Amino acid sequence: MTGPHLKATADPIALPSTPLTDAVINLIRPVETPSVFNHSIRSYLFARLAADHLGLTIDHDYRDDLLFAACAMHDLGLASDGPHRQRFEVEGADRAAEFLIRQGTSTADADQVWQAIALHTSPGIAERRGTLCVLVREGVALDFGGPAGADHLEAITDQQAHAMHTAYPRLDMVRSLTDAIVAQAAKNPNNAPRYTIPGELLRERQTFGRTRLEHTSRSSRWDA
Predict the structure, then answer these.
(1) Crossing angle of helices 197-208/88-102, nearest 10°?
(2) Is the pLDDT of residue 220 over 60?
(3) 223: left (phi over 0), alpha (psi -120 to 50) or beta
(4) CA separation for the pair 142, 140 (Å, rounded)
(5) How far apart are CA 123 and CA 208, in angstroms?
(6) How far apart are the C-alpha atoms of 198 and 191, rounded to whole Å?
(7) Could you give all domains of the chain from N- to C-terminal order, each with its CATH number?
(8) Burial class of 118 by CB neighbour count within 10 A (0 to 12, 13 to 18, 19+)
(9) What's the mean pLDDT in 124-144?
(10) Are 143 and 221 in contact (CB under 8 A)?
C-alpha cells in the first residue's frame, strides 16, 4: 500500500502488489534467461533504494508501478521471442510500451517507460530525461556493483544486498547478460551500431573473446 510522500517499503525484496506487476512478470519470465530475469527484478529493488537515498518518495516524485515496469522490462529486447531487428534497448522499449498500452496504461505513462528503457545504457542523457529515467539507470547500474553504480553503493547495506541476492541469485549475471546482448547484436547490423553498448560488446567479444564489462565486473562489490 502506498500513499503521498511515502518512501519505499522497508522490505528490500517486496514487489508492488498490483495486477500490472503480475502481468509484467508473466511476460518476461518465460522469455528471459533466469539470470537476466533476476537481474531485471533486482534492478527495480536497487532503484527503489536509490530513490530513498536521493530523498525521492513514492507517489510524489515517482510512480512505483511505472518504476517496476521499466526496470523489469528493461532487457525485454533480449527476449527469446523477439524480432531482433533493432538495438536491444530500443526493441525492448517498443515492446514494453506496446504491452503497457494493452494493459490500459496511458500513452504518456507508456512513453515515460519507453524513454527509461531506451536510454538506460546512455549515461549523460538518461539523467536529463526525468526521474524515471534516472532511477532505472541507477537501479541497473547498482546491480553491476560499480564502477557504474558507485554513486549510491553506500546506500545499500550488506543485509539488504544479501536479501536481494538470496531471493534473486546472480547466476553469473554479467556473463549471461553479455552473452544475450552479443547474440542479439550479431543477428542484424542494425542491432549493433558502432559505439553503442551492443555494438562495442559484440566487437570486444569478437576481437578479444571477452568484454571489458566482464573483466571489470570481477572487482565489483557483488563479484559479478
Answers:
(1) 140
(2) yes
(3) left
(4) 5
(5) 25
(6) 7
(7) 19-154+163-217 (1.10.3210)
(8) buried
(9) 94
(10) no
Segment 48-80, tens digit of pLDDT: 999 999 999 998 999 999 999 999 999 999 999
Give the residue among 219, 48, 72, 67 at the shortest CA–CA distance from 148: 219
Q: What nine digits make up the cell of 124? A: 549523460
CA–chain centroid gap for 182, Å, is 17
Angle at the Cα of 40 from the Cα atoms of 186 and 181, rounded to 5 degrees:
10
Q: Are 133 and 114 in contact (CB under 8 A)?
A: no
**pLDDT higher at 106 or 6:** 106
pTM: 0.92
d(CA 210, CA 11): 37
Three-class secondary structure assignment of the chain: CCCCCECCCCCCCCCCCCHHHHHHHHHHHHHCCHHHHHHHHHHHHHHHHHHHHCCCCECCCECHHHHHHHHHCCCHHHCCCCCCCCCHHHHHHHHHHHHHHHCCCCHHHHHHHHHHHHCCCCCCCHHHCCHHHHHHHHHHHHHHCCCCCHHHHHHCCHHHHHHHHHHCCCCCHHHHHHHHHHHHHCCCHHHCCCCCHHHHHHHHHHHHCCCHHHHHHCCCCCCC
> What is residue 219's predicted lDDT score, i.e. its pLDDT?
77
**Separation of alpha carbons 153 and 2, rounded Å:** 25
Grid coordinates standing for 70?
521499466
Alpha carbon distance 101, 132 (integer Å): 18
